[in-house]
Amino acid sequence: MFKLSEIKELIKLVDQTSVHELEIENEGARLLIRKPGKTEVVNVQSASIVPTYSQAFQPPVNQPAAAPAVQAPTAAQPAATNNYHQIVSPMVGTFYRSSSPENGPFVNVGDRINEKSVVCILEAMKLMNELEAEVNGEIVDILVENGQLVEFGQPLFLVKPE
């Protein structure tokens, strides 16, 4: 179940971003926050897992959708991604390649990483969360831009595992 304080924080996060809809499932409870215009709709109910994507990102091919406001990045992705491990976002937040604007990026294409390598920072609700690779290998592609809003489960990096 969701705590009221968590719901309030998520509503604030959605209100401060360009995300128009956020759906999260936890322990059989589903939280759906929509932002049509200036109002928010919060609906909490038990349900099976049904992924919902905001207008900011392209939905899966099998779901019809209106034209998204921003297309998910697809350029420069290698043709055969089957052999690569995807490092995905564990949360909704803002993607940062470095710890500060003055510092260089944590990783670049071609860098070798291990399970404990920090690959980026995800900012959510004013908290900076370091994301570790959890895989040994080589960075093949960076799928999002610095400062871009990312969604839960969105691929961030492609890694050629060792």
From TrEMBL:
SUPFAM superfamilies, sorted: Single hybrid motif
One GO MF term attached to the UniProt entry: acetyl-CoA carboxylase activity
PROSITE patterns noted in UniProt: BIOTINYL_LIPOYL
A Pfam family annotated for this UniProt entry: Biotin_lipoyl
UniProt pathway annotation: Lipid metabolism; fatty acid biosynthesis
Taxonomic superkingdom: Bacteria
Domain Lipoyl-binding: 84-160
Keyword terms, alphabetized: Biotin, Fatty acid biosynthesis, Fatty acid metabolism, Ligase, Lipid biosynthesis, Lipid metabolism
Job of this protein: This protein is a component of the acetyl coenzyme A carboxylase complex; first, biotin carboxylase catalyzes the carboxylation of the carrier protein and then the transcarboxylase transfers the carboxyl group to form malonyl-CoA.
PANTHER family per record: OXALOACETATE DECARBOXYLASE ALPHA CHAIN (PTHR45266)
Official protein name in the record: Biotin carboxyl carrier protein of acetyl-CoA carboxylase
Organism in which the protein naturally occurs: Paenibacillus solisilvae
Lineage: Bacteria, Bacillati, Bacillota, Bacilli, Bacillales
Recorded name of the encoding gene: accB
